[in-house]
Amino acid sequence: MAVDRVRAENREMILWTPAQVAAFLVYARCHLLYTLFYPARASSLRIGELLDLRWNDIEGDRLHVRHTLLKQKGKYTLGYTKTTKGHRVVTLAPDTVAVLEEHRRRQEQEREAVGEAWNHPGHMFTTEVGTYLDQRNVLRTWHRL
Fold this sequence. Notes:
By secondary structure, this protein is α+β, with helices and mostly antiparallel strands. The protein has 5 helices and 5 strands. The protein has a single domain, classed as hpI Integrase, Chain A (Orthogonal Bundle). The longest helix has 21 residues, at 94-114.
C-alpha cells in the first residue's frame, strides 16, 4: 500500500523590529548566552556556524566564517560550512566587537579557574567548563527568553 507524503507548508519568516531586538537583548543581558545572542542578531550566521566560531576567526571587526559544529549520532563533529559560498567574512559593528572582547576576557578567567580540564580553548562560545554548547539547548534558551 502506497502512502502519500505529507507536504510541509512553508512558514513565513517573521523578522523582529529593531525595538523587539533591543528588548530581547536587554532581557537576555544577564544570561550566560548573551554574548552568543548579541552577534547572532545581526550576523545572519547559522547556529552551527556560531557554535564553531574560534577566537582566531576574528580579526579586528572582521569575522571569518569557515566552520560549523555538527551533532551526528550524539557526537559533535567539526565541519566546514555547507558550501564554499558559506565561507565568508562578516563585518562586525563596534558594539559587537566590544561585547566579544568582554566575553573573551571573562572566558579567559573561567579557563584559568578550570585549568587543564578546559576542553576547547580556541572556541569562542563554550560552556563554563569549556565544552561545546548544545544546539538544542541554545535554541531552547533563545525561545524561552
